[in-house]
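Table S5 (text form). Sequence records supplied for joint modeling of the two-component complex.
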Amino acid sequence: MTTVDSAEHETPAAEVDRCLDAAATAAPEWGQWAPRPRAEALSAVADALDAATADLVAAAVTETGLPEARLTGEVKRTTVQLRMFADLLRDGSCLRIVIDRSDPGYALGARPDLRRWLVPLGPALVFAASNFPFAFSVAGGDTASALAAGCPVLLKAHPGHPATSRLTADLVRSALLGAGAPEGTFDLITGRDAGVRALRDPRVAAAAFTGSVAGGRALFDIAASRPSPIPFFGELGSINPAIVTPEAARERGEQIAEGFVGSFTLGAGQFCTKPGVLLLPRGTGLPERVAELADGVPPARMLTTGIARRYHERLGELANVAGVKVLTSGREHADPSGIPAVSPALFHAGPVQNLHEHRDVLLDENFGPSAVIAEYEVDDALPGLLAAVAGSLTVTVQTSNRPDGEERARLAALVEVAARCSGRVVFNEWPTGVAVTPAQHHGGPYPATTAVSHTSVGTAAIERFLRPVTYQNAPDALLPLALRDANPLGLPRIVNEPGDSGRWR
Amino acid sequence: MTTVDSAEHETPAAEVDRCLDAAATAAPEWGQWAPRPRAEALSAVADALDAATADLVAAAVTETGLPEARLTGEVKRTTVQLRMFADLLRDGSCLRIVIDRSDPGYALGARPDLRRWLVPLGPALVFAASNFPFAFSVAGGDTASALAAGCPVLLKAHPGHPATSRLTADLVRSALLGAGAPEGTFDLITGRDAGVRALRDPRVAAAAFTGSVAGGRALFDIAASRPSPIPFFGELGSINPAIVTPEAARERGEQIAEGFVGSFTLGAGQFCTKPGVLLLPRGTGLPERVAELADGVPPARMLTTGIARRYHERLGELANVAGVKVLTSGREHADPSGIPAVSPALFHAGPVQNLHEHRDVLLDENFGPSAVIAEYEVDDALPGLLAAVAGSLTVTVQTSNRPDGEERARLAALVEVAARCSGRVVFNEWPTGVAVTPAQHHGGPYPATTAVSHTSVGTAAIERFLRPVTYQNAPDALLPLALRDANPLGLPRIVNEPGDSGRWR
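The corresponding structure-token record, covering 1010 residues in total, follows.
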């Protein structure tokens, strides 16, 4: 979703090496902390950030130009997120402990005593995002979930907000050390070369990334081509199609137009869940209304010069596609920061068939406040069209208030395909604004992510940094405390007694 | 773990294409079967295989030369495995349904209604293994778990047992079709080129493989370099170190020598969990006793000519390492099948430091009945040595009957490192013989597997073929049955009511 600016300060190779060494040394110790003290350490980080909210927000306002209220809310989201992972650890079921007691009468012959739980992968390299200077940056969801899993984190800062990153990192580091975590549990590096160096290093066991398809794919390829490949949890690009039924357009067209404009221009369109394309039934007049509303949205500063430049180039590409009409051209305005501010841009691609024909340009994410509208006929095969769209984080469906009869019958196939090509299907709301809850899924087929089975938002994000280990026939005193007979840590465990066919979770 | 012979019949490209088309067409339908009918279909496959056990075993005896009793047991393991996945589906908790009801008072602002569950990835390509002609072949664990997840399976047969594969495939296909599964839910292809063609095809959504490091890495690289990369669950090579404490050697040296020889020569050493290296305290005399016992093991036919050839080459490499002494050379015998039979081979690498120095050869898996012994001094840093070994499926530790005092203190660090570099730590038993149970983990860091967070044995293997999808604010009638308010399928679900901080599983 972002492009990296060139002026990034590079952490020297020797310092990257020192950080990696410290992380590798910290990994066994931090990884063996019991869930509850680890939860306390995460809470201490949250407390430290909460206490410094004013300073953090001030730094981020200067660097990103985002509104103070939005940034204050984002610090809160970041600390709530850290506390949710702390609660997850206190609950302990995320360790998924399963004990099969030995069973001489097991179906396939005597079964030994087997005890399985999840352990941390080891040092995690996290590439921070541009667009959430707190919630997906230094102390964001990737860091929180990796630390909760027991992985030390080496954080590669985003060049869009270096001072905010450094300030946050200092708070995270001292809170962790203050809670007794070993040196090396958290460090910050900067610079593209430093990030690549760390990604290639055998001491790094996993990586997480939020950014552009081009940048993310290059890093994924590095992770996959290492002598020992590692998991790479990349969140790259997503077009997030939104589809409006004829019934919805008739019933609440104005509300939909307002909602769409609000969503695709939120944060200057620099959200990974921005709805980039809107499919409307033909002849509603809504495209013009959407354009009118978009014209009324004040210009907003882009996050970085690089993002603004790439956004501008993409506007030109979109406008040059055959059959595309520019509804609103998206003016650029000077900003005291030197980084351009932009007004929303809106394109009309004509019939959905044209969208499909030129999908390489029209259905490729444009990071910024632009969107493409296309119109369909009621007998167009929308599910087929949707299936041809590349993987997305979300698909949004706008229905009438009580979808039934013909509308519901048509929607059934569409919703099924929406679930096949995305990770979240949103009804009658908009995809921006991702709730941090247990049932959340923020992921999807490539290029939305490089790891389709995982989420980067919500408590399930911890799964990315864990792996199973089973102990067979172990003397009790040699087991980790969590797996001993007496269960001294009081963790939730599934225990399959002899004769049980076996429960799994 | 295997090498592919060259005489493999190639499924023509047009037929591979037809199979992929059928799988892609079947995927939405098979993927939407409710868990219980899907369980019935798996049980029907198990029934069909059970009923044909005699024919299946006869075919496999001819093709593999494995003993009839072993193969009969393996058919049973295969069908028990299918029925375990059927039971898992009947239980339904593997779908991990979590419902967060909308909550206007949620910590970060109003939370919408979110419902998360797991859905199948889509068509899975399964490369069968050489060494388990049933349990890890056509209807083996990969196939059973992918089908249970709701993924159609395209099975690339192993050339070591083509007739057995075809016979099994016909039974699987007709049992599935008989249970009402769509055409394309299961098909078989043969040949290396056919497998690679399928792996590159955009209709394939995931792949599983059991085989050699060289072959598996080549396929992993193809999967990772696709325009849309897919998950590749490869189980490649594993050295499976076994370590004997001085106390254990004193207390039950003879039993350990017998157990080790039994384990590394089982199935002519062609198990992925074969203990390939044994670390003994110096001066026990056990190396000679192990060699004596190994000499008494009758020759056994290798699985394929290719495997036998590679095994023979590797014996030469091992014998040529500086400081290595051949304790038993591993004679080759003619077999009526034309594929060589071999006696066990045993090497003494001297002190563990020599093992470490030449680890590229000595600690590289040799698929067949060979093993390497090394001796350590009590003050050698065994944990450090173990940490330098590449990722393994297992580490085995032989202790005294009641490890305490000094032995236990020394073991604590060793066991911790064992869990870091493997997926299963075995005590006072041997790693061959992998129980199929909920707490089992058959996986490990690269090169043991290419996906460290997953297992290929045990019910958790289903997780490889599932991904989450969340529905936000969906009208009840547009939700999958499993997620509707009335829970018409009666599935286990976690429901977080307003005010709940949120449970996750």
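Note: The first helix of chain B runs from residue 13 to 32.
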